[in-house]
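<purpose> Linking amino acid order to shape
<body> The protein record starts here
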Amino acid sequence: MLKFDQVLHARLGSLKEAVTVWTETVSKLEKAKEKADNGLRSKADKADWKGENAGVTQAFVRKTAKEFGDALTEATSIRNILRDAEGEFKAAKSALEKLVEQAPGKGIRIDPDGTVSHLIHPDRRSKDYDGPKPEQADFEAMRSSIKAAVDRANEADDVASRALRALVGKDKNNFSGTKYDSLKAASKAQDAEDAHTAYELYKKGDDATPQDIDRFNALFERNRKDPYFAERFALEVGPKGSMEYWADMGDPSDGSRLSLDHRDKLKELQQNWSLTLATATHSHSPEMEQWKADVIKAGSETVQTRGTNPYGFQVMSNLMRVGDYDDKFLRDYGNGLVVAERKMTHDGRLPADRVWHQASGMPSRLNWQGGGMGNDPMSGFMEALGHNPKASTDFFNGSVDLTPGNTEDDKKLDPFDYLTKDRAWPEELNDKGDRTKEPGYDALGHALEAATTGHPYDAEAEGLKDVRTKENAEVMQKVVERYGSDPKHMHEQPGMDDSLGKMGAAYIDELNRSLETDSDTTMEEKKNSPFGFNDAKGGSRFGDEFDTGLLWNRGDAVNFMGIVSQSETGHATLSAAEMLYTTSVLDEVGPKPGSAFDERDLTDARTTLRIGSEAQGIMDESRMAQIDKDYEKDSEEHKKAVGKTTEWVKFGVGAAAAGGVVALTGGAGGVLVPLAAETVGGAVVTFIGMEADDMAEKYEKDEMLKKKSDDLSDEALAMGKENSLRPGIAYANAPGWSEKDRNYLDETLVDYVRDARLHARDNSLPDPYEKK
């Protein structure tokens, strides 16, 4: 694998010379081939040899003459591969040289290993510095360009080295005669060869050895995201072939040891197979369009193995858990799945588990990724939506025609209502062997995360931006309406609370904008609100109607934040998001550190801290009430739960802030929190660097368990109150303030909001959920 410095400093003179030498060799072989054709072979063909010598000599002469042609073909191919490889290396090297040359002019430094940083760090700039001040977007663009150039060189290196090995061949006595017109042609030929090799391994089914599965995975890994390989493999195996293979792998009745002894290999194979088919669906060739249609058609048909007979939808959905499938295919597949399920359940009169579990015969494992056996096809489909935000957004904002072939009726189904309210989600056997609905609701949460945030739910947080659109917000409005209407919706859907916390964090700005209003029912923001702005003019990214209009009213915001905070995970996520967002707003609306200001300049800062403190109070009170409902007072469980209520501060420590978002640590993909500005201010940096202090760490186990629950609750609420002041403290201690101003801000702002949490009790908070 080539690295940045190897590509940048590559010496291509020898390669260029090799191209010249091989070009000369081709010219010489062309003449030799012409002599062999016109002389040697022509005379042999015309000769009238008799006896045994005729059967030996004439064939030998012809074969010898043919070798000149094969030698020419091989030499030409080698020349073509070296020529194109040199061109790719040269282009990659030139691109890096240009980036290195341009970087200082943009205020960027590129280290010898390709690491990008400030040419002069902001902390080391002089007061009169007027040079370039690169933003996060500039660094991201530079990293992306560097990666593209290095990847280009590596791709050329991989294809060229493999092609040259194939050309030389294993037969020392014969030229291969392989023809490559270009590096691109060689790459395509390699893809076709790999796809066929994979097909041969596929035909072994569960008779394959562990070594065969390793080879299978290696082929997939080598061709990861390669569209030509993916399409060739998908078409060679066929829609039913993939389903039959995967159903056979999960059949426990045929004596195969793979599923018993090599689950890790099958987990990897499922992931690779999913990624490959996902890549293939982005092809719109006639053959792949037919493949997609056949997949959906086969979904309602059973796949018969020795001991199981799952439906095609059940199998295929488990091959969609990983990877970014094509938008339209996902929508068509989802519509087909919903139509089939409604038909088989007689429009919901039968529960879904009656359909999907009955059809499977013996217990069959269709999913090796964790999170259930894979019998519910809706679960795997939700995971697919979780990796494709656009398809997920369109699905939850759209409708499903339940009679697609009938133009006389208009029988439609709302997918959001169906999946979050009406559908009886089947129980699945989880990894511990327990029957639970958590795998399905967990997958539903992932799909909704993608639909509301605009990012795959498990995307690496680094480098992500706030990409929310009006369409994303429309799904979020439905989420707040549904899950903020009654605590039972979240509590009776195990696995949803962490996703709801992440969705709330992603819309913490709009939730704050609603909390600021004086009425619980108004849909108009308080004039000149410091919250929710997305451009320099104070406009909303969600459309003109939301410049002053709210996504939801104050009452709905209080209910949603309160209900989500009844969960330990939801409380922690929303609390950290609230504090970071509040701090970023202070950076944006408060006087800049070091500037002169008077009382009126602190109006927005006071408002920001007041709402942030009240929000934290809503969340803390809701969590405490739920703990009281869940556990007996003074029990060990009650005390431990109270002790964890301030652990959220850990999320803020070391969080990554850049490009208008903060990425909270912990959980798949982290948690994205929108900031009030693209550039991170001193208060946010100070907040992130503050020392974490929470109940769980403050008290040793024995000491904590000796206290009364009421005393612990009082201490936890007091600490929560202090934590809610952290944004104000961070702002007052941001670099740039004089000691006099720092003391004044601490006194004026921090003390001012100490009583703001009392407003939380003025709200009509949602009742805690009482378990049945």
Observations:
- Residues 632 and 638 are 6 Å apart (CA to CA).
